[in-house]
Write a structure and sequence with these properties.
about 0% strand; about 110 residues; mainly alpha; 2 domains; single chain
């Protein structure tokens, strides 16, 4: 892998990590802000109404990790299952299902 490709991959991983940290900080803020009764009363509806949508970078990071772990063929077949040769061709509406399918790659094989 060339130095530029490694740098691009590192940057992508940093962006994914930053997005995850930001999401965790937002969640913590929501959990511990305001009084306890108000947080408990709004907790359930908030989770149902505002489910965070997965971003391309998050899905790419998971699939890249599976590929680096030696499961490149499984990742490619998973992309084909969703009608694409590469991740950017997959409809973002399918990211959640794709991530659920990706979770089982490498588990118990």
């Amino acid at each position: 892998m060339s130095k530029m490709a490694e740098m691009a991959q590192t940057i992508e991983e940093l962006r994914t990590a930053a997005a995850s940290i930001n999401a965790a900080a937002d969640w913590l803020y929501q959990q511990f802000s305001g009084d306890d009764n108000k947080a408990q009363a709004t907790e359930t509806p908030t989770k149902k109404e505002t489910k965070p949508e997965l971003k391309l970078e998050e899905v790419r990071a998971v699939l890249a990790e599976k590929s680096r772990a030696g499961h490149t063929a499984e990742v490619r077949s998973l992309l084909k299952k969703y009608g694409a040769a590469k991740l950017s061709e997959i409809d973002p509406a399918n990211y959640e299902a794709l991530m659920k399918d990706a979770e089982v790659i490498g588990n118990g094989s």
